[in-house]
Design goal:
By secondary structure, this protein is α+β, with helices and mostly antiparallel strands. The chain is 43% helix and 15% strand.
């Protein structure tokens, strides 16, 4: 006697187009507390019956699932034709993968994102004492990032540059110390974080457009960053705002020679305030207030210059003489509807730096970090929606016949050759002379800092009443006769 027919379960049509009957045919891929239904087609033309499954299988909890066989979101008992969609030979559903990618974009580590996915699907193991534990191994998130990270970022992030672009970057430094072991405030660049803010149509409200990592912060790397997206020939970037960096400006002139370069007004304002501080002029002083209004219009600029001439602010007068041509040029080219500051981009960079935090010391793989930055960009754009991610992944799987894309093994670095360090080494070789001069300047700075630290230690000992540590003494050279005896 055959199995009782289940009239409530929907039968999908035969994927080969056969007319006939489609019957339930058990389950396949039973893994842990989950299973996926299988079907069998009986062609009416007398062909050979054949089993099949859906292009995206429906993953269903079994009765022995720790939380029961019903849906964990709505409590509905899952029917034969229902359940979370999964790719062939995949356990994790499209929503599980989407949730994982969203967590990575929020700054969650690879280990914690992997553990959260295993915990939500009851993928637990037992330790030597029989306790059920979740694994914190990062390989799960690494694999999903390599396979589906490009699918999501390519579909949701812009692929061409807009009319107005704001550019800025920030370095992540390697850990170094001074000769006496004290932690060093500034060290060699581990990698540089590049970012761009874009304004569709050249005006309006902008969005974080793109982020990338590079081995250095020079015009060659910036030019590569600008070429990483396509340029619309009908509407190329024609307005670029920078913080005044010479490397960025040279790269823009090389890649977008017709674009207008505009220096961030906020950077000029803050720099001028620091120069005024050297002249002991602070908030509340008339000249300070005039400087804060100087970039508003030519009239206020001239009022500031007149007041500066009659003041004793020698440092500000010297700095203004250098920047006067730039500031007056910006009055000529200013467009009120275009962006004139890098403030919004600096906020996005600060948020990203906070997300990465001290973890930047452990990043080794350049391709993996770039994918993570793409997910962080979507998070900063407030477009990191797991439902949207899941639909993008689903469409990609359906277009590929239900199979997941092949894992990008090129993301894996050769053993003992971290790709981030390799990019930094290439930049070091290219910028050898400049870095050498910078190191010489740094050594002078380190010597000055060592003297200051010693002075602070001395003051601290005197205030506390402790004895000063004995100064190291050089060994006394031997007498000439003793030297001859030693030679003999």
């Amino acid at each position: 006697m055959g199995r009782p027919r289940n009239p409530t379960a929907e039968r999908p049509p035969c994927p080969l187009g056969h007319a006939g009957r489609v019957l339930l045919n058990g389950y396949y891929g039973q893994t842990g507390h989950y299973r996926r239904p299988r079907y069998k087609c009986y062609p009416s033309a007398g062909g050979k019956p054949h089993p099949f499954q859906l292009p995206l299988g429906r993953r269903q909890p079994t009765p022995d699932h720790p939380h029961g066989p019903s849906c964990q979101d709505c409590g509905h008992l899952v029917a034969r034709h229902e359940g979370a969609e999964t790719a062939r030979r995949y356990f994790y559903s499209t929503r599980d993968i989407a949730d994982m990618l969203v967590e990575l974009g929020r700054g969650t580590s690879l280990r914690k994102a992997s553990a959260a996915a295993r915990r939500s699907t009851a993928r637990l193991t037992r330790d030597q004492y029989g306790n059920r534990r979740v694994s914190y191994h990062a390989q799960l998130a690494i694999n999903q990032l390599a396979v589906f990270g490009p699918v999501v970022t390519d579909a949701l992030l812009p692929q061409t540059w807009p009319r107005s672009v704001v550019l800025d970057g920030t370095p992540f430094l390697r850990r170094t110390t001074y000769d006496d072991g004290a932690p060093r405030q500034g060290g060699p660049i581990g990698f540089a974080l590049y970012a761009a803010y874009g304004y569709t149509g050249g005006k309006g409200t902008g969005l974080l457009w793109r982020m990338d990592m590079r081995g250095a912060n020079d015009n060659i790397e910036w030019a590569e960053f600008l070429r990483s997206l396509a340029t619309d020939e009908a509407a190329p970037p024609d307005w670029v705002v920078t913080d005044g960096s010479g490397a960025i400006q040279r790269a823009v002139k090389q890649v977008w020679p017709k674009a207008t370069l505009y220096v961030c007004e906020a950077h000029l304002l803050r720099r001028g305030e620091k120069i005024l501080a050297k002249d002991h002029i602070y908030g509340g002083h008339e000249l300070f207030d005039l400087w804060r209004q100087a970039q508003w219009s030519r009239e206020r600029w001239q009022t500031f210059l007149d007041a500066l001439e009659s003041s004793k602010a020698d440092n500000m007068r010297s700095w203004t003489a250098k920047k006067r041509a730039l500031i007056e040029r910006q009055f000529d080219i200013r467009l009120p509807e275009r962006p004139r500051s890098t403030g919004a981009l600096e906020t996005a960079l600060a948020n990203t730096k906070k997300l990465i935090g001290t973890r930047h010391y452990v990043f080794r793989n350049a391709a993996r970090l770039r994918l993570l930055l793409g997910l962080v960009t979507l998070h900063e754009r407030e477009e990191a929606d797991p439902r949207v991610y899941a639909e993008v992944i689903r469409k990609a799987l359906v277009a590929n016949g239900g199979k997941a894309p092949a894992r990008a093994r090129a993301l894996n670095d050769p053993k003992a050759v971290p790709s981030i360090a390799a990019e930094a080494a290439l930049a070091e070789a290219r910028l050898g002379d400049k870095r050498k001069k910078a190191r010489e300047h740094s050594r002078k700075f380190e010597a000055q800092e060592a003297i200051k630290r010693q002075e602070r230690r001395t003051v601290g000992h005197l205030k506390s009443g402790r004895e000063l540590p004995a100064e190291p003494t050089a060994p006394t050279p031997p007498e000439p006769e003793q030297q001859l005896l030693d030679l003999e």
